[in-house]
Structures
1.
Amino acid sequence: MKIIGHGGKEIVERVMDPRQAVDKIRGLTRIPIRDQLAREVVMLSYGFFTPLQGFMTKADVDGVVANMRLTDGTVWSIPIVFDLANEEIDAKRIKQGDTLLLTYQDQPMATLDVEEIFSYDLQKMAEKIYGTAEEKHPGCARTYKYADRFIGGKVTLVNPPKMSEPFDRFFFTPRQLRAKIAEKGWLRSVAHQTRNVPHSGHEWLMKGSWIACHGDLPVEKIVTGIVVSAVMGEKRKGDYIDEAIVLTHDALRTYGYFREDVHITSIVLWDMRYAGPKEAIFHAILRTNLGLTHHMFGRDHAGVGTYYDPYDAHRIFDTISEDDLRIKPIRVLAWWFCPVCGEVTYSGLCGHTKERQNFSGTVVRSIIQDGVRPPRIIFRPEVFDLIMETAEKYGFGSPYVGDEYLAKRNPLFTVPPLKL
């Protein structure tokens, strides 16, 4: 049965059985790829990036940069490109029409059919996608690190990766997550994008969005769910370790803060671009392909520094018609702790603006670093205890990414040996 994703296009899995792939990939030119590209190969191959089935050609990049659309008119906001140095292209005599073997962790991983080799104005790309050309913007910095040229073409996974523990419990392809949603009987489902462990502000963000999503549906039977969609990608020092993020979010369900029948924790492989409104559109596309019907967008979604207004990621959806996006945005203001109300409350309702206490990253970090259980109004005790446990088990003593974690952590996934 066909499964339809973003743009009304069929979700296609480009995944080959390794036993059948051996003869087809023998003798192909090998290209080792870095972590980011390996993650994007996985996402492309399983249909997370539908309608893309591979890395973009120049025409598609032009369309995305100029007017946020692919050549067929489908809305798309972030270039998905494969870069390669001139020296390697020349040394390996790579040309249009070739098929390349992409290797990762010294193992064959996927093939790339070379449809086009092209160069691009990186400053123009940065300015149009991020609204700035400043190198201190992390998205611009990533763009300026691209190699000399790009290769556009379809990819096929020939050696599917094995997800590492504990991520194996939370990785669902679009087909798998859609099946899980159907199994739960959900008619509506709302995505919570996250790179953080959940404090009570996050919890109420999800609960408020669930109420908004459930809306006019009958209450006798629950047919609406929350899908935590944790972003797993490049880590910077000071980020939360990935294991803490997924395990603490799952703990909210385990300990009953969300009912078993309304909550799923999942992961996606993506290196954040911090593109603010443009990345909000991309996140909506991604969760459309995962089968979700709604997506919550809070304050400063996918933003960084002062490059975007806190609610630019809300406003961009006013420029996109409902026909172009098959998912509804839920636009959310801030949740804060109000000492007058004596509870976590919503900034759209609470009038004690002078007394408010925001859930700032600095305050939350100081609470965690103290290692002493805070009031449950800030952190659920089970969640806080699990943060401490994951710090010892996975984080070399800290729930935050440090040099040792970067050097020694278990990878998100491994590519098994494949003998040619």
2.
Amino acid sequence: MGGGALAATSPWLSTFASVEDTAHERCRIGFIGPGSRGRFLLGFLAENPKCEVVALADIYQPSLDEALKITPSAKTYKDYRQLLEDKSIDGVVIATPLNTHYQMAMDAFDAGKHVYCEKALAYTMEETLSMYRRHRETGRVFFTGQQRLFDPRYIKAMELVHQGLFGDINAIHAFWNRNADWRRDVPSPELERLINWRLYKESSKGLMTELACHQLQVGTWALGKLPTRVMGSGAITHWKDGREVYDNIHCIYEFDDGRQMTYASVISNKFYGLEEQILGNLGTVEPERGKYYFENYGPAPAPAFVQMLMEWEDKIWGANTFAGSSWDPEVARNNPGEFILGKAPEVDGTSLLVEAFVEAVCTGKQPPRIAEEGYYATQLCLIGHEAIVQGQPLAFPEEMKIDYAPYGTKGS
């Protein structure tokens, strides 16, 4: 991938421009919320020679105990505010339940820390805007957990999309399907809402904030603009176990030129898994699979059973009543596609995202577009959730727009 094209497609990779200059630097990181996702991130930090994880904070002792196995020399706190009082800490990672992100991030900015906050950024659209504004006011580095921004296959896919290789992109179909109840074991009943926070309204907005946030960003990245309106529906159709968030959701995001982005998530069937299907008149991109397909691959032969019937009819009546391959549904069953990077995906971008945050903390420089992409990803999933709850189409609020030239938006 050429450096110029790479920079144009993913200017946030400028984070690595001074990687040699920071070879002998080391930043000090505090980690808030080393739960399952948190410890995954913590593992990458622990392996990075340019940072030292010096402090951990969590109200749940078992999480701290597990995290200490990764970073045994770190101090531990039950109150994250005590961690923030350590003036030697340069940056913090926040990987706590959704409803706690806002206050923790705001406190961290006010304490002079650089911030990496897991997605979705905040529980409400207003909180999300306030977080972004505080980042701008303080000048602190602000990263969000949108690892696809650093995933090599996504970066290359977007380069090809924006070059027009697949023609006019007229639709995005994104989905994430699982077959699991999303529950975690709870050692005692009073810890149910603490451990299974994703299932309850006061701490989570379910599938939209936990899953859709990733994939909606891919859609706007591909199209280079924001949708103007969203509608959706959701319900608890399978996992009727006391949860309060939906297990089945569908949304449609409309753009001002008529294009649409659909999003669906069902967690009672995993057959189709997850994907963002980027549909152009010349081809299709499936970045999660790491593949692309051209429309003019070639005509698909008639299915075997159709060929058999044609042979029988030819013997009996001497003519074919089936219309050969034109009868076959228009599917790309015989199009194997090509790997975007020449091989199957091996990483998902998380390690590079964490590495980029460390580089940014070392330099104190905010990479272009990282904060803005994370901001809009959160706002889109939040307004989608609200459209589902209200049961009516909602326009993207003008007052929630920020100055972001790639999407042509201006802040109010």
3.
Amino acid sequence: MSYEINWPVPFFKVHCLIMDSNTSSLPKGFYRITILIGLGFFTMGLMDPLYDTYVPIFLSDFLDSRFLIGLIMTLDNLLALFLIPIVSNLSDSTHTRIGRRMPWILITVPLSGIFFALIPYGALPTGSLALLVFVIFVLNLAKQAARGPVVALMPDTIPGEYRSEANGVINTMGAIAAIVGTIVLAPLIDLDITLPIIGSTQRRLPFLISGLLVIIATILLFSFVRESAEAKQKRERVRLLDSLKLVFGGTDRSAMLILLSLFFWFLGYQGVLPFMGIYSREVLGVSEGLAGLSPGAVAIGYLIMAIPSGVIAHRFGRRRVIRFSLACIIITLLLMFLHNPLMSLLGVAATPAWIVFLAILFLFGMAWGSVITNSFPMLWQMAHFGNMGIYTGLYYFFSQGAAITSPPISGAVIDLFTLAFGDSTGLRMIFVYAAIMMSVALIIMGKVQGGEVGEAPVHPETGESGE
């Protein structure tokens, strides 16, 4: 069948011939289309690692309890738990001349960029915990409302058999943004110069630059991406309840198992993520600027494997790639747990030990990127155009549910083991906790049957397979 994407100028009007799913060729203009769509994901990739690394550090200036820090760090996930499914569902039935996702993107993404730039001002000595939490709240209100429409823009545009490859490209955009944020911008956190209007740049500059880049990316996204004609057509709204019944009460439990599996692997990931900056500073002894390199190493590994993992999954199966990657993640987490005492036992100096830790994080990033690249397309493979946003919302409902649950648990694990064995061991226990969660996800993923390339979704009302 033919597949057309309408661009604002003739150069970007692409007519794609969708070939049989057994062929390895991609549609004409595939990478140009997905890179442009990926600008939305670029904004998320730019903000998330800086937020996850430095907001806990900013909060630690006001709070001593790791549990309370972890609790506040779940605020974005708590908002995401409700906002993403609701806004995604609403965007499914939004009908405007610029499409159904773009109106939401144009409002929420620039707003998130503005409040992201304001975070360090709430964390100033002249600021307060209440002000910092307020800025964090408004930022996440906008950012989480944006996430569903931004992500759903891709499956609206790309056919099911190519979504692993497309998700690889879009995740590559996110990884590039994460690298820009962590490798290029994060070291600027230590830079202390005085600029007009801004004042001192220390702790501020990465957030200010990122906020500006988010707004620029939104302008480019709107200028060069036009939603498909199908997205602009008014259609009968697919009821949320019908899709939920299909996922949790249908004969095929693959969608439910995927959601349950991703809940556990996000429990593991989100249990480590909020404390990585603190771990790098307090256990590995690096500066706040260098602490930002931790998610940067993950992002580089993610970047390298995002596209290849989608191609590999197209050939060997998404489930196999995800299970293999989860096994690799478990190994790297155990290596992180053993890293510090092993380096001390071998007498390795601080700098080489830090480099070894970054290398382990790089391998973790490669495996993690493979999981994320292929899990979303598995779920989308089971959705129809009319309920794509609902399935996107379900993905985030479970992932953000894990993100809400996990940081307080891992923070409590740190506090408990710190009391018993000291601060270093307490912080290292987050890697054991994460490895256990990843192991549960690996077991559940072994029971998934659907979601592979070429499999038709089940209609939410009729229960029959087919587009």
